[in-house]
Design a protein that fits this description.
Length: about 230
């Protein structure tokens, strides 16, 4: 589904924020991307989803290059940024309609309402997004991404700001979504959740991949948290 090959990106033309990143994510994978603040997670993700140009390397989504075929790549994925910015003059329901139209997905009222109820958003769908709390905005963008069902979900710290009920919902939805053969690439600092949810994981350190493998092999002798601390203290 995703192939990242020798990806490097510099913001200032001097020092690489990320260097020589190689990652492969297959159909049905839930891939957890972890690392300290400033390690390069969001930079990698922004290159993957085609919003940051990069100097060297290649990224393909379903065999298509994000550099030469960005629209085809983007039509297969949903990206949710670490701090979702939504047009605040829109109502929640308008945002859903707008995004579904972009992805050419029909608006199914019953499905929208069911999901909005599950996310405790049904009562506020007709309110302006400017009146939403951070967690409500996060739930709205997540809900919309699951509604148009792309083959690939790219989520930058999706659990930040979610209440325990929404966290549980999101975990369940991610598992069900991947079980259908879709793929998820997400970054997180919540290592306990990553350990339970992901079948693959990579630890990025100072812009380079320090560890990359299956969750099973990485957590064979210690928890992901212990492993992570070992890698980042060494
Ligand atoms: N817009 C930018 N301009 C210049 N440097 C940037 C920019 N965005 C990120 N960086 C630098 O790139 C490096 C990687 O940052 P990045 O945001 O990818 O880290 P991260 O792993 O997502 O961290 P966090 O866990 O805090 O979200 C850092 O050194 C950061 O200072
Ligand atoms: Mg980040």
């Amino acid at each position: 589904m995703i192939r990242i090959d020798k990806l490097s990106k510099s913001y200032d033309g001097k020092k690489n924020a990320i260097e020589n990143i190689d990652l492969t994510i297959c159909d049905g994978d839930i891939f957890g991307f972890v690392g300290l603040n400033g390690a390069g997670k969001s930079t990698t993700i922004k290159c993957l989803v085609g919003i940051l140009p990069f100097e060297s390397g290649e990224i393909t989504v379903n065999g298509k290059s994000i550099k030469t075929d960005p629209v085809a790549c983007k039509s297969e994925m949903a990206y949710i940024a670490d701090n979702p910015e939504i047009y605040s003059y829109m109502k929640g329901i308008d945002y859903i309609r707008f995004m579904l139209a972009i992805y050419r997905t029909p608006f199914d009222n019953a499905k929208v309402l069911k999901m909005a109820e599950e996310f405790e958003l049904a009562d506020v769908l007709n309110n302006l997004v400017s009146s939403y709390s951070h967690g409500m905005r996060q739930k709205l963008v997540l809900l919309t991404a699951f509604l148009h069902e792309p083959k690939l979900l790219v989520l930058d710290e999706p659990f930040v700001g979610l209440d325990p009920k929404a966290t549980h919902m999101l975990r369940t939805m991610m598992t069900e979504y991947a079980a259908k053969g879709n793929s998820i690439f997400f970054s997180t600092h919540v290592l306990e959740v990553a350990e339970k949810l992901c079948n693959k994981v990579a630890i990025i350190k100072d812009g380079r991949i320090a560890v990359n493998g299956t969750m099973e092999e990485i957590t064979k002798s210690s928890s992901l948290e212990e492993f992570f601390l070992e890698v980042n203290n060494g």
